[in-house]
């Protein structure tokens, strides 16, 4: 498939899209990004993604004035790549631009590098149905995790370690508390009450997390935005993660400890049911939701 991408004002074949070796994203990981999922041509939470993108750009002090054109560009890229009837991801990346390699910012005449591409993003049905194992590691990242930075080496290292141990994610621990995962937010359930780390400089404000909180409010599930102590994880009945790619995914094992009976719990299933019916519609019935939620 001859995929088209958007780079600095032009749509072009991906094979012909190149950046300068002096791009600050390449030299310094000096940039931010967003990932938006399209459900058969319909973007999920586009406005929420734009709000978060604005916050990331502001936090990184990257000057970009084309925010209002992004939805049109993303929709057009979906159309050009004939993904209007697919489950697709749209990746947007913004770096500070091309400049000689020096730590100080370039002057205002240097424009950001803007790159957008699309790719197929089907649901991880086996994982969302049966759940995943996670590992727990010390949070070795910086103190501005609320910025969706392309500086992801700690996340990459920890996720690779998780994969090598047969796990699907890594929970980060900071000062004894579980914060978030390498690319997803974390929820714990005890006695039908959901606990999640409040948004802060140590946690990315998740778009799917926001959707989960809205679902809980609508169907009457109590949520407490309190962090979970890692040494008390065995006291919880359920865990699940949320993210653009993960969607709503049960966690059934923490390291060598199974969560309860090692199966996705009823609160997780109920939220999954609400989320997937809202995003996938009737196709979700083919995933045996009635069996999942009892």
Describe what you observe in this structure.
- The protein has 294 residues and is an alpha+beta fold.
- It has 2 domains: 4-120, D-amino Acid Aminotransferase, Chain A, domain 1 (2-Layer Sandwich), CATH 3.30.470; 125-288, Alpha-Beta Barrel (D-amino Acid Aminotransferase, Chain A, domain 2).
- It has 8 helices and 16 strands.
- The chain has helices at residues 24-28, 46-60, 70-80, 125-130, 153-164, 207-219, 266-279, 289-293; strands at residues 4-7, 10-13, 31-39, 42-43, 87-95, 113-120, 132-138, 169-174, 177-181, 185-190, 193-195, 223-224, 228-229, 238-243, 247-254, 257-258.
- Strands 7, 8, 9, 10, 11, 12, 13, 14, 15 and 16 form a 10-stranded mixed sheet that branches. Strands 2-1-6-5-3-4 form a 6-stranded antiparallel sheet.
- The chain is globular and about 55 Å long.
- The N and C termini lie far apart (42 Å).
Quickly list its features.
about 290 residues; alpha+beta; 10-stranded mixed sheet; 8 helices; about 30% strand
In short:
The chain contains 8 helices and 16 strands. By secondary structure, the protein is α+β, with helices and mostly antiparallel strands.
Helical fraction:
25-40%
Shape: globular
Question: Tell me about the biggest sheet?
Answer: 10 strands, mixed
What are the low-pLDDT stretches, counting only 5+ consecutive residues below 50? none
CATH-assigned homologous superfamily of the largest domain = D-amino Acid Aminotransferase, subunit A, domain 2
Question: How many separate domains make up the residues?
Answer: 2
SS content category: alpha+beta
Mean pLDDT: 95
Would you tell me which CATH topology of the largest domain applies?
Answer: D-amino Acid Aminotransferase, Chain A, domain 2
Element order: H for helix, E for strand:
EEHEEHHEEHEHEEEEHEEEEEHH
CATH class of the largest domain: Alpha Beta
Total DSSP helices: 8
Give me the Rg, rounded.
20 Å
Query: Number of DSSP strands?
Result: 16
The portion of residues forming beta strands comes to 25-35%
Question: What would CATH call the architecture of the largest domain?
Answer: Alpha-Beta Barrel
